[in-house]
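Example record

The entry below shows one chain as it appears in the dataset: sequence first, then structure tokens.
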Amino acid sequence: MLIQWYPGHMHKAGKEIKEILPQVDVIIEILDARIPFSSQNPMLKQLRGNKPCIKVFSKSDLADPELTQQWQHYLEQEQGVKTLALSILHPEKARQIPELCNKLMAGKAESGRLITVMIMGIPNVGKSTLINMLAGKAIAKTGDEPAITRMQQRINIGNNIVLLDTPGVLWPNVENKNSGYRLALTGAIKDTAISHDQIAFFAADYFLKHYPDALKARYSIEPLPSTDHALLNEIGRRRGCLRSGGVVELDKAAKILINELRSGLLGKFTLETPAMMEVELIELVAIREEKETKKKARKEKWKGGQG
């Protein structure tokens, strides 16, 4: 599965980011704590270059706390960035961000000059929520639908800091199919971009392997089925998602699993680990090389046919 969901305003936002970066002192990249790798935008990583960066783990109250710590340590060691885990349950932690920005730009802060901080992130990751926390009032529009912010905003939050808010930018093609499923499952990609069944099968398989106790507790299933398809069928039967003849309506069962997972009814979870991502990156390189080899072979065959 190769997800292609790239509304026109996101393309425009990418160009605007490139244009304004020379004016930026510090970049804050917001990640979904449940998918710290998949919610990173590789385009943004390349664009920021060596500028100081703070990676904020949003929605950490929904994520597996042990894996959040693993990810923070990994990113700080591997990418040389600062990290901070936040949630709407503890908005006071957001106060550490202005202090950290001033430390990262100590010379500018001491001179009293304004520090320009750009906030980046994919759609629906919590940028507007963080801005409102930092400003201490509702300035940026928030919501559960991806791609709500559509225009750059400049917001003075005090402490010598001006924030630049940018629209949520998702890269044009999500090459890693598992990252595509994770983005869809957490709501970064609109539900119309991929079928509920596909997302739910991915979620069911992952939870069977990594969070079986959460499934048992939520759906009172003991023992658990061994496959994703069987699990969805069992959830559908127990929730009355049946057509005539007792056939389970998988789409309804899929929506139940997805909605309850997103709302936190299945407990705290994280859909990827640093070790898992390193393996998937190696696999992705192999896939790219295979595609390039096939492309060259087709080109050579075409040239031969023209000769």
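Notes for this example: Strands lie at 3-4, 26-32, 53-58, 82-85, 115-120, 153-158, 161-165, 173-174. Confidence is low (pLDDT under 50) at residues 1-9, 142-151.
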